[in-house]
Amino acid sequence: MKILEEKILKEGQAIDKDILKVDSFLNQQVDVELMEKIGKEFAKHFENKNITKVATIESSGIAPATLTALALNVPLVIFKKQPSKVLNDEFYSVETISFTKRNTYNLIASKKYLLKDDNILIIDDFLANGEASSSAMKIVNMAGANVAGIGIVIEKSFQPGREKLEKLGVDVYSLARIKKLEKGIVEFI
Amino acid sequence: MKILEEKILKEGQAIDKDILKVDSFLNQQVDVELMEKIGKEFAKHFENKNITKVATIESSGIAPATLTALALNVPLVIFKKQPSKVLNDEFYSVETISFTKRNTYNLIASKKYLLKDDNILIIDDFLANGEASSSAMKIVNMAGANVAGIGIVIEKSFQPGREKLEKLGVDVYSLARIKKLEKGIVEFI
Questions:
Q1: pLDDT at A99
Q2: N or C: which end of chain B has fewer CB within 10 A?
Q3: Across the interface, do A28 and B78 touch by the CB < 8 Å criterion?
Q4: Any idea what DSSP says for residue B52?
């Protein structure tokens, strides 16, 4: 998505070979007009997949996922990160590693809003190692529902996330795919 | 806001005299069409206040705040909850009590996206004791910016939040104001 790549080149900060900060339009501050365009782009890509719900992971996924759900005219389900184990049979829970934050959390989702005949589009801000997205897929599968696809705003293609998700047989659609990062330099595929 | 009150009566679960669960359209699952109407209503109420940015608190405030920012055509800034003290001069930080979760967290916001001449509309999902909203106000004030108003989706008017915020001299606009809760019963003002 050209407008997103241009925004990344203009405002993104490549800190080192692994870290890209996009605080000015996605993580701390959100460019909601850009998110609306992103939502419409995801909706267009997945429009023939009979999506029944969009799901996302708190909290940086929520803004783009809200506008994707609005464009598709379906509800949004929010998967939450809990530091400690949730012993509660109202929730699905999957232990998840965060490489970025170097910790482990439980990704949880209310059982009530994931139904057997749901066809879920998962939206997230970043794809790196694919831990969060594959935990989200596990939760959808625990509900007996189908993952119709995964929409990613920014993919770090030099990390193994995409390969991992594609092995699970899912359509991964990323709006910006980064081939290489270096301090001050961003290269797209 | 009539459509919101009707949704609360239809889908909200009054657990006891303090707790209202609105998991089906605001907290676990999000009715994005309703959030769009909510965003437009906040935008209409505050349209003459020269709002430069919308701010919200992760994570249930993000969906309604995204659609308010979109309706006002301004950026959104997300204030985040950190369990431990953030010793980092890139962030404003205010220690905050959560009565609901019976814990304390640090509400933080990047200094970069709050400027002296900003006129901020704070949006949040619930107003109860006013702890989160008044911490958000403190952060805006730490930046030397102005709080133009506070928009709340659901106010528990029997708790002291509104009084606390009004004493700080701010315009609080709540879309649903609950006078009384009892198991199975919700009464509006």
A1: 79
A2: C
A3: yes
A4: -
Q: How many CA atoms lie less than 13 Å away from B74 in the CB half-sphere?
A: 24
pLDDT in tens, B73-110: 999 999 999 877 767 889 999 999 987 778 899 999 99
Q: Are strands A146-156 and A119-127 parallel, antiparallel or unpaired?
A: parallel
Q: Measure B173 CA to nearest chain A CA, in Å.
A: 22
Q: How many residues does chain A have?
A: 189
Q: Given an 8 Å threshold on Cβ–Cβ distance, is B28 in contact with A78?
A: yes
Bridge partners of residue B149, in order along the sequence: B121
Q: Is B170 helix (H, G, I), strand (E, B) or coil?
A: coil
Rounded distance between C-alpha atoms, residue A129 and residue A117, angstroms: 29
Q: Which of A32, A53, A112 sits opposite B76 (nearest CB)?
A: A32
pTM: 0.97
Nearest to B62 among A23, A63, A83 (CB): A63
CA distance A170 to chain B (A): 23
Give the residue from chain A lying closest to B33, CA to CA.
A70
CA dist., res. B71 & res. B44, Å (int): 9
CA–CA distance, A35 with B66 (Å, rounded to integer): 9
- Locate the DSSP E strands across chain A: 13-14, 20-21, 29-30, 53-57, 76-82, 91-98, 103-110, 119-127, 146-156, 172-182, 185-188
State the pLDDT at residue B177.
98
Q: How many CB atoms lie within 10 A of CB B159?
A: 17
Per DSSP, the three-state class of A95 is strand
- Contact list in A for residue B28 (CB cut-off 8 A) is 77-78, 109-110, 112-113
Residue listed under structure tokens 């528990």: B156
Give the pLDDT confidence of A53-64 residue by residue, as tens digits: 999 999 999 999
| Contact indicator for B67, A66 with CB cutoff of 8 Å | yes
Q: Do the chains contact at A30 and B75, CB–CB below 8 Å?
A: yes
